[in-house]
UniProtKB/TrEMBL annotation, chains A, B, C, D:
Residue stretches spanning the membrane: none
Pfam families cross-referenced by the UniProt entry: Glutaminase
Gene: glsA
Protein name, UniProt field: Glutaminase
GO biological process annotation, one example: L-glutamine catabolic process
Reactions this protein catalyses: L-glutamine + H2O = L-glutamate + NH4(+)
Length: 303, 303, 303, 303
């Protein structure tokens, strides 16, 4: 069966699925998104792009942005970054402060909220938020080969107003000496970083640099690509990362906007979007679509 | 550089390494093993076997046995097994009882001790320990194509006498209704299962069924191979699984005897052994050898 | 209003109360006790004994026995006991193993199960269980001035067969080096200690040594009486100790058999029994009766 | 031996004690206090005031203020307050955020920081910080019968600038819907409340309303006095409350400024101050002085 037909089948079934999960409601602006949406886009190593459903509708990438800021931070700081953040799955919810106390202010990995806040704080050092956000957009636009990618200011504002849990994390990090900038500055940047709007097509293109395939954008070194992919595999879906590895078998990163970016090394960069979340905070239909695609294509890295 | 030369280089360097970690001392019989030992063996998809160092000296595989009992349990129970054990990294030490209370008696994954005890308990249902251990040995011998693989009774007894923490886990599981057999029966089986002696060569051969390559022993279905590999990637090195994925990029399982089994899907099955452990409970030199081999060969699944 | 009338009023109301809590069902022998039972007995400093309800029906004192073993252990070991067990409220359920891991095998206080097991283990050193249980019975009988107090062998056996959680705690303590005897020996003694049967009248009399009043049995020194009372106040009702102090204002110790022993220093020793428990594991009507008695008499130690 | 002589003995010994604990350094303004200070004051039921040492030197009462705000909050809200905060010892450090996550935003008791922030938030409802702080000062001045009690603005500012951990707690409470005012407003009030300066003499006088003795200021009802005392007993010294009950046997509340207020119901109100803290965050010499005073006087509530 060819890939285009597979995608059409997935798109059709997901559009009709009765159980669509629950749209995140803690960020007011995101709560208004239509749960009927579903899109998928696959960028192949040969340069082709295949899509199905709402692949050209922009959505808020949210935590998927953490992949890009991690790439930037590793480029700027290298292994020094790991003095401030770990590389282990958390065993707790994505916004847990409990683990953070247990570990004395060193977040378990760069993809839980506390860890991502530290990463953003690290690349802010000596820069204005505007510069850092500019660098992030440049990185994403270059990766995607598309300049029409922007920060959604309404979403950014919406997070700023309701982000008490992230404020708690930031102040807690600061209390432990693991936040170099004022909490408001780091969080202001973090909220804007999460508020980038992208379409599935744009996101699949932006993820090509993680394919480590000839002809793909070369934004970080091959060894760093492998390491980012490894972190996505073990930590990319919060406390459901093990389940995603088990079912899908690809490195991936989800966001509460309902998007997931996954990478089949050497073969494809895949973006999927459906706003309803499962009880672990990952896109319900997005996860199912990834599982089905991986099974149909045999793209699992595990054999 | 060819693989044989790479292995010779690793073997020579590891034999001479001054910092060798610390041999596990909580099982008396294991505490006597010579920390100077180092062996490595690689079984390739083309049937070749390359080795270096003490690759034919038997050692206690300990927790690596969990890979084989998981394969047996999945064959017997299928997805029903997941009602009794999870698939997520633990975020805690390998023998943590804390997590178990938090999760009300459902171990986080089949590779932490509590989870492995549940797996052994599951395959014991309606069978005598002798039968289950016989089935395990048959599985391993078939996988390795070698009948000269045995349980070390002295090691088994040594564990039985000192395994108070595992006894605590078993009774705790039983109190939560997640142990069907008497704790003594399940643990007796578990301690014997962990006491299998193998050489690196035997272990590398036994791991070939996880390569999912033509000509390799076909003991479980391809989709199950992928899933076992996924669990090894996210949970195979306890609370250092993220780090192993980051540094090595291969599914792997370690044991406190100092062994590690890793799989490069489609390419190789790798066994390494050095008895000294690092502070996470994994073989110190074994981890370094795996990292060096992965870098030299580019076998990482992550690109 | 005189005390006899107060007790009659409490007895009548409690006998008629519709909501009686839930009888503990994890020890089969206790699960059969009639939830309609309610008894109360008050031993006064002037030697009088006032009662209401089923004050002469024997019940299983269970964890109330921990007060007596603590008194014996302090007499034998003095402050050395505190090297093995703490003196702080636990902040967790009475049989939590989580806290124990966090604190590396040192139970938070002598009244949670793990702590009481350590206390029993301490007084077992160099003695046979039979001797220790004999000493305990002698202590209780002397305190009560009544030789007709015995261990209920059926209850003891019932606990032995189902006590997996306590077995887990004991093995865990042993793994941390904080159990000197084999788990089976210490737990066998512990289960028998908890299986002492007493009536409210006997228990109220047995508690008189904690009144620190002239003419009362003098079994431990005045300073030790104060310290045992302090521990009962802060730790005697598991994770509802703060609430008992708030509502009743007296040192007290509860048991899952539905009994509570409380002390009004200089004034009275009070025993109450009703088998139904509230959601914190303490006697539901017994707690209410204690609150009402304390309010009517003004016996709170807090002013 | 008469009380005046006892106090002189304590004062002399404490002034000469070589090990004085460690002055809190996380609030810059407090870090400058001279560790050589020691003062004690006892207000008796007969109206006498006895003192020793630096009893008339003002110090920052810090968390001792929580006793007064709790009294005000109970007066204003009554038992409704307990919907937002518990009454159990925490089993964790005074500023733990871990427990708060575990309990889903309901602090364990009103004396740990999170609980005290909720209490302050509760009395702020519909009022300006200035009004609430005015009411607090009025309460304390009335209790002490002394109008010369003020907020130290330098200390209040010093806390505001460094209080990241409290900011984290406040935002976390807000994220759980258990903070009605903006975090900055509640914390601004809280930091000022903690910054009240008092002398031992003033504090001992202010604590007389908790003695429940004739002729003492009657600021809250007798039943409420008992309840506040109960909370001080079980929760007043953070994770050393059990130890304080064991050693001293009186309800007490400590502050990181080195002060402790304790109450001997019907007999005395006691204030002690020495700035060096022990490893639990309570005044080192202050705790020892309380223990010695309680032993010499026999004022323990426990017999």
């Amino acid at each position: 069966m060819d890939l285009a037909a597979i995608l059409q089948g997935i798109g059709a079934d997901m559009a009709a699925a009765p159980d669509r999960g629950r749209v995140a409601d803690y960020i007011p602006e995101l709560a208004q998104v239509d749960p009927a949406r579903f899109g998928i886009a696959v960028a192949l190593a040969d340069g082709r792009m295949l899509t199905a459903g709402d692949a050209t509708v922009p959505f808020s990438i949210q935590s998927i942005s953490k992949v890009f800021t991690l790439a930037i931070a590793l480029g700027r700081l290298g292994d020094q970054l790991w003095a401030r953040v770990g590389r282990e799955p958390s065993g707790h919810a994505f916004n847990s402060i409990l683990q953070l106390e247990y570990e004395k202010g060193i977040p378990r990995n760069p993809f839980i909220n506390a860890g991502a806040i530290v990463v953003t704080d690290a690349i802010l050092a000596g820069h204005a938020p505007r510069e850092v956000l500019g660098e992030l957009l440049t990185f994403i636009r270059t990766a995607a080969g598309d300049d029409d990618i922007h920060i959604n200011q309404r979403v950014a504002r919406s997070e700023t107003e309701t982000g008490h849990r992230n404020m708690a994390l930031a102040h807690f990090l600061r209390a432990h000496g693991n936040l170099l900038n004022p909490p408001e500055k780091t969080l202001g940047t973090y909220f804007h970083q999460c508020a980038v709007d992208m379409t599935c097509t744009q996101l699949a293109r932006a993820g090509r640099f993680l394919m480590a395939a000839p002809g793909m954008p070369h934004l970080v070194s091959p060894s760093r690509v492998r390491r980012i992919n490894a972190l996505m595999m073990t930590c990319g879906h919060y406390d459901a990362s093990g389940d995603f590895a088990y079912r899908v078998g690809l490195p991936g990163k989800s966001g509460v906007g309902g998007g997931i970016l996954a990478v089949a090394p050497g073969r494809a960069s895949i973006a999927v979007w459906s706003p309803g979340l499962n009880d672990r905070g990952n896109s319900h239909l997005g996860s199912l679509a990834m599982e089905r695609l991986a099974r149909a294509t045999g793209w699992s890295v595990f054999g």
